[in-house]
C-alpha cells in the first residue's frame, strides 16, 4: 500500500490530509510538534490578548481518520531524501513513498544585531502567548515603578502581519490600561518600517487609508527608517533615530522552516523553488507546499505572496497530484486564483482587494472574517466551524 508522509499540520498539511483521507487505500502518517492545529492568521489576536489561544486552535486528532492515518506528535529534525526517510528529534525515522513538506514559516531577523536576543516574535501559539504574558507583566511593572517605558510598545515592521498586530494592540489598549491603572492613551504604540510605501501590495490610496486609521487611533509611525540594531529596550535606526520601550515585537518578515536548510536542500530563505507540480526540482517524490515553497505567478512574473489561502490550494494540489500519479495520470500544472487580500486593522475595520474591487472599513472586516472562516472550513470542516461559533462574526 502506498505510504504518504505529511510534515506539518498547518493549512497546507491538513488540506492535503483531508484530500488524501477521501481514499482509504493509502497509508498516511501526519507529523506535527503540537497535538493541535492553529490558525496562524489569527496569532496577532492571541499576542494582543483579544482572543484566547483556544479560539484559534483545535485538536489534530479531530480531523484524523484512524482507518488510514496515523498521527505522530514530534519535532521534525531532518529530511533524508536519498534514504526516503524523515528523522524526528527523538531519533524515530519515518519512511515514505511520497513526502509532503508543509512545515510553514519562521520569523526572519535578516541578521540584524540584537533581534534574536531582545525582540519578541510571533511565530506560533507559544510565542504569541508569550507576548500576551509579557504585555501583562509590563503593565504590572508600571504599577510598581511608574516608569512610562513599561507602557511603550514598539512593533518592528509595518507589513501585513505588523499592521494586523497594530490593530489588535489598539483594540487591547483599554484592557491593558485597566491592568496598569492608567488612561489607555498613556499606552504608547510605535511602529518602525523601512518600506517606501506602507502596505505596498495595495494602492497608495488604500495604504493611506490604513495608515491614517491607525494614526488616528494612536499609532506613531517612524518610516521609512531601517533598523540597524536592537539592544535591551532600545531600537536604533540607521539615521540615528533611537526608540525605547520595554516591549519590542519583531514582524519584519518570515522565511520557511529551518528544516529545509538543515536537510541540505537548495533554497532561498528556506523556500524551495518548486516545479510546476510543486515537487522538488531534484526529487519527484517530495512536495513542498505552503510557506516552504516558492512559486512564480506566470501572469505577473512575481512569486505568489505566501498566504494561508495559497497554502490550502497547494496542499490540495499536492494530494491530488499523488493520487493522479498512483492512477497513472498527470495533473495540469498548479495555478492559483486569490479570493482577495484583506488586512485587518482591528476587529471591525480592514482594508484590501477582492477581485478588482478595493474594500475598506466595516464591510472589509466582514469579508476578512469570511475568508478566515473558509480557511477553517477547509482544514477542520463543519465540526470545527460550529465548535468555534464562527457563524456569528462579531460575538
Ligand atoms: C499574524 C499573521 C496574520 C496573517 N494573516 C494572513 C491573512 O490574513 N491571510 C492569509 O492568507 N495569510 C495570512 N498570514 C500568513 C499565513 O498564516 C501563512 O502563510 C500560513 O500559516 C502558512 O501555512 P503553512 O501550512 O505553510 O504553515 P503553518 O500554518 O505555519 O503550519 C506549519 C505547521 O508545521 C508545524 N511545524 C513547524 N515546524 C515543525 C517541526 N520542525 N516539527 C514538527 N512540526 C513542525 C507547526 O506546528 C504548524 O502546525 C498571516 C500570518 C501571520 C503570522
Automatic annotation (TrEMBL):
Residues 3-315 form the FAD/NAD(P)-binding domain. Belongs to the NADH dehydrogenase family. Keywords: FAD, Flavoprotein, Oxidoreductase. Its cofactor is FAD. Pfam families: Pyr_redox_2. This is NAD(P)/FAD-dependent oxidoreductase.
